[in-house]
């Protein structure tokens, strides 16, 4: 008899999720999985509910219906205390970066360590410097956020998100407000972190260049039907999604046919019609 090893359990499993603000439905019936070590992109047009889905995954917005399983645990079904403990295993970088302007970079990164660990101030300082070096900011420990560029502020925000060695990193529009070169450097950093630490990374973004260069898995949310209309590798969705809207969005408004001749989808459709 052959021994078949079952596939590893996904890191995050979302099943039948509905999200609402009051009676206003944001998204419904979302079912998708995020594998361990994935760089998973939540994408879709403006206002479709990407940030709201992220908020639900990080514990800030309870679902109206459905389940979010993180590892072995039903995240929203768990007691609040257990959920809060799980949330300490998440590192979050919000859109604004949100560093404290009156604190140095080392103090910003050290803040969660002071709050959630028993480390001495000297150890916190050393660990903060190490986290800053991971994001290429060695030597900037004593700088204030206003003294460094926007791209460096984002890096410092990532160092702070990584302070407690999270299992999952969540980024909301990490490249918002950055020029294309800083944005590319940030993508490189995200990939480096994923490769060196194996952290699962979930990102809300509609920057196409980032989506294709760093994402290996994704979900595509539709604002009209208010549900997901695609899941999978973004490059494959760009070229082969059976949904025209998904292909158009990922080809920057151009259909695949416009760019490079008929897509395999339309070839298949043409073959089927003959
Ligand atoms: N706290 C809230 N209360 C009520 N409605 C909200 C709240 N936050 C967001 N919304 C609404 O929910 C919808 C989805 O918002 P959300 O920010 O999740 O979308 P998004 O896809 O991330 O948008 P964008 O791409 O513009 O950042 C929008 O119509 C927004 O106005």
Q: What would CATH call the class of the largest domain?
A: Alpha Beta
Query: What is the overall silhouette?
Result: globular
Oligomeric state of the chains present here: single chain
Provide the structure class: alpha/beta
CATH superfamily of the largest domain: P-loop containing nucleotide triphosphate hydrolases
Q: What's the mean pLDDT score?
A: 88
Tell me the series of helices and strands, N- to C-terminal: EEEHEEHEHHHEHEHEEHHHH
> Would you identify the CATH architecture of the largest domain?
3-Layer(aba) Sandwich
Share of residues in strands: 15-25%
Largest sheet: 6 strands, mixed
Are any ligands bound, and if so which?
adenosine-5'-triphosphate
How do the strands line up in the largest sheet? 6-7-8-3-9-10
Unreliable stretches (pLDDT < 50, length at least 5) are: 259-274
Q: What is the third-level CATH name, the topology of the largest domain?
A: Rossmann fold
Radius of gyration: 20 Å
From the N-terminal CA to the C-terminal CA, the straight-line distance is: 46 Å
Keywords:
274 residues; alpha/beta; Rossmann fold; 6-stranded mixed β-sheet; 4-stranded antiparallel β-sheet; 11 helices; globular; binds adenosine-5'-triphosphate; ABC_transporter-like_ATP-bd; P-loop_NTPase; transport
